[in-house]
Write a structure and sequence with these properties.
Number of strands: 12
Structural class: alpha+beta
Strand order of the largest sheet: 4-3-2-6-5-1-11-12
Bound molecules: aspartic acid
Largest sheet: 8 strands, mixed
Order of helices and strands: EHHEEHEHHHEEEEHHHEEEE
Helix content: 25-40%
Oligomer: single chain
Number of helices: 9
Distance between the termini: 30 Å
Shape: globular
Strand content: 15-25%
Amino acid sequence: MAYALAVHGGAGLIRADSLSPAREAACREALVRALAAGEAVLRRGGAALDAVTAAVVVLEDDPVFNAGRGAVLCADGSVELDAAVMDGRTRAAGAVAAAKTPRNPVMLARAVMERTPHVLVVGAGADVLAAELGLSLAARAWFVTPEREAQLAAATGVTLDHDAKADVYGTVGAVAADRDGHVAAATSTGGMTGQRPGRVGDTPVIGAGTWAWDRTCAVSGTGHGEPFVRLGVGQRISALCELAGLDLAAAAERVIREELPGLEGRGGVIAVDGQGNVAMPFNTAGMFRGSVREGEAPVVAIW
Ligand code: ASP
């Protein structure tokens, strides 16, 4: 089976006239680097789970995206990190929410899945777990960038990252199908600018912002998290494939373009199935995204 991989760097009101060429190039380059990290795993016959983890670590470490380093700030100036992974082979899943110290939140989510009996660990408990398991930790100063401080100062209310008038980008995610036809998903975010401390969006909610099941598909979402949670976006796309017989593109398009707007939900998803089909619909002005399929050149797009 040919492998496939897709990544995203967030959806929102991304305007061509407010994105400087230098920043656009930096963003595209980071997406290409994330695809390369994930594809290196898949090319040597590695697992989809390892590929999505590798791709998301690259994007978390890049300060232009709203995940790990460069995460957006809560209303009180704090950083709260959410992340999730799901393995389509077994539907094993792990997630963390409102963590403050894991340098790579996606690695902590994976540790929750692989090294605890739990699915979701939040707040101070997540930070304690990261330390106990010997994961790499970082102080607030490592996560916070001057762009994020300025973004919070300028924000009025709770803002989707890409809707803010700042030269910074969004939530990140990856989905992959490996040569064995197994799928996996990973998503990581700092949430929404100016959110109440303790607010958690769709990213770490399994079945909403993150979902993977070999029988149907793997999904990673980005956008205004609350409607994603209320609709159960990832699970719903999966159920439309499983129970209504829709193909991946039709299922993903229906949920993002028809159903999500009914809840005033804005955003998009990247999705892949075990045959290597990729869908990346969004209902916002843009979504930073990229994909690669075995034997083909990687493609990156914004609008
Ligand atoms: N979905 C994320 C959240 O609501 C935000 C985003 O995708 O930019 O926390």
